[in-house]
């Protein structure tokens, strides 16, 4: 794993956070678009944490 991969993942996470914020404006948290954006962000966050954990071993 390289710093480049982590930086790319961090950028993608920030982009999805922004997307989630935009999608959730004026919608219920149970709206399918909000749920999908949240799930997409969760997937990247888990990947990021796994990369960090493997790096620190």
In short:
By secondary structure, the chain is mainly α.
Structure description:
The structure is a single chain. The protein is mainly alpha-helical. The chain has one domain. Helices cover 81% and strands 0% of the residues. The chain has two helices and no strands. It has helices at 3-24, 32-55. The longest helix has 24 residues, at 32-55. It is elongated. The protein starts with a helix and ends with a helix. The relative contact order is 0.18. The model has no long low-confidence stretch (mean pLDDT 93).
Spell out the key features of this protein.
0% strand, 57 residues, mainly alpha, single chain
Class based on secondary structure composition and strand pairing = mainly alpha
* Uncertain spans: none
DSSP strand tally: 0
Total domains? 1
User: pLDDT average, as an integer?
Assistant: 93
Please write the string of helix (H) and strand (E) elements.
Answer: HH
Distance between the termini: 12 Å
What's the helix and strand layout?
Layout: H1 3-24, H2 32-55
């Amino acid at each position: 794993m390289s710093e480049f991969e982590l930086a790319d993942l961090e950028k993608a996470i920030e982009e999805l956070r922004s997307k989630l914020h935009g999608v959730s404006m004026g919608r219920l948290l149970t709206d399918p678009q909000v749920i999908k954006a949240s799930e997409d962000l969760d997937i990247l966050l888990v990947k990021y944490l796994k990369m960090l954990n493997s790096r620190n071993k």
